[in-house]
Amino acid sequence: MRAFGLFSQCTMLLMILLLSGCGGQGSSDNSGSSYLSDSDAEDTLSDDSNDDTPVVDSEALRQVRGFEEDLKVWEGKLNLNPEVPSFDGTIGTISSLATDDIYVMLQSVMLTTQHAALIAIPELALSEACENLGNALAVLGCKTLLKTSNLEQLCNANVDFELFGLNFCEFINAVPVPIILPSTLPQNVESTGPWVEFALLDSNARVYNEWEGIEFDVALSEGEVSGKQVHFSIEGTVEKEGTVLTILKSKISFIYEEALSGSKIALPKNATGSLNIEFQQTMDGVITNPVFYEGAVNIDAELVDLSQSGGQGVLGVSGIDLTLDAQGEYTDYRDNVFNGSVGLPNGARDDLSLNFETRTPDDVANVTVEVTASPEEVQEGLLSLLILWDSKEYDIHYDIEQPSVVIVQNQNGVLMKIDFSKSTNAGTITKGGVVYGTIDIVNGQAVIRLVN
Fold first, then answer.
1. Rg from Cα positions in the chain
2. Which end of the chain is more exposed for a tag (fewer CB within 10 A), N or C?
3. Residue 349 contacts by C-beta under 8 Å, 6 or more apart in sequence?
4. Same structural domain, 40 and 111
5. Are residues 169 and 303 located together in one domain of the fold?
6. Rounded to the nearest 5°, which phi and psi values hold at 161?
């Protein structure tokens, strides 16, 4: 993830980073920042003041100078250059939750665990299992037993009925049912697909196997039917390319269009819940220390285009819309620990919204940083920031149509705008429409000149 702008200690004036490769001549140190003080610039720039300079508002000028001082506070932490990490990589660490990985992994969990309602009404699961036997005689015998006795009666009676080398009670405590899921893989790539195994006597189920590079092993238990809802516990692991999602024991609910009964199978329309998770992600194999998240993920899912497959005993669903909201403790690859949250209205397809808590570089005040961006802005690294500390608010944002332009505005209405594609007249600092400072790029360095 790319980040934001760096402010220097080398000047009594605010010196703004010249973006490398954006029309300027580069910077003078290995961090990508380079500055001139007003006195340093005197031998380079001529004094372009004249008698027509408007009289400035002294209070407004005081606020402009305060703006400059506030930005100096963030030296070494905040970067306007999208190529330079801000806040020691904190934004990149938290936004790892905003990648497709966790969205796809939890989406897959929802797609496969939707059938967990069957553990709350075991007859439904066993009916599905009967259809899946494949042998017509076995199917008939299985259904006949279900019509004449309930599960407990059948087990207590030691029914002489064997399937796959298992007696009846052993079989109904390990009922395998395949699940058909929508595939995005090329037709010549095979995917084994997940199975759900119901242990009807023990009232639990296990989803396992692989689907499109995602490996499942998720357990469902304690199913309880309440009208149009079924509540159950969920726990297990999901793995995908160096990313491990562990679901600690949590509660989740599925909502149906009609009340459930033992006479027909139905699939839910919605799912809600709060999952306690641990999320560990290795960064492209380059950094050995993974980023780590521990906390809660609130889920609101809508299962769409539900249907039962035409094949006997096969469960199917074609899509899902999923909203995530995660809040907890993060550990970045430098082992820095901080609290934060990330919200995804519909996964990585919608706008990113995340925030985290930190301290000012001088360790004087608590700070909240809010980050927002569209999917296109995320891709370009043009993430908007709102930095809040004490009574101060600094809004930093980019324009996807003009990525070389950055705008910074504070709670007093002081506004700084810089176009890094220019070398002269690159930007201004204004208050109430009045210009209180200009920005030029001199010898590869950016200089702000405030009015006297």
1. 30
2. C
3. 375
4. no
5. yes
6. -145, 120
Which residue in 8, 22, 23, 86 sits closest to 396, CA to CA? 86
Total residues found in the chain within this entry: 452
Pair 110, 72 in one domain: no
Q: Which residue has the tokens 């209070």?
A: 59
184 shares a domain with 274: yes
- List the structure tokens of 202: 């023990």
Q: Return the number of other C-beta atoms located less than 10 Å from residue 222's C-beta.
A: 14
Count Cβ atoms below 10 Å from residue 231 Cβ, excluding itself: 17
Bridge-based pairing of strands 175-180 and 315-331 is: parallel
Confidence band of 414 (pLDDT split at 50, 70, 90): very high
Count of domains forming the chain: 2
Same domain, 26 and 162: no
The amino acid sitting at 403 is P
Q: Which of 5-14, 87-96, 202-211 shows the highest mean pLDDT?
A: 202-211
Distance of alpha carbon 231 from alpha carbon 221, whole angstroms = 9
Establish if 61 belongs to a structural domain.
yes
d(CA 325, CA 295): 11
The alpha carbon torsion through 47, 53, 57, 58 (nearest 10 deg) reads: 30
* Amino acid 22: pLDDT: 35
Q: Give residue-wise pLDDT tens across range 80-121.
A: 666 666 676 667 666 665 556 677 778 778 777 776 666 776
Full DSSP string of 387-427:
EEETTEEEEEEEETTEEEEEEEEETT-EEEEEETT-SSS-E
pTM greater than 0.85 = no
Tell me how far CA of residue 235 lies from CA of 45, 103, 113, 250, in angstroms: 67, 17, 11, 7
* Containing structural domain, residue 417: 1-82+400-452
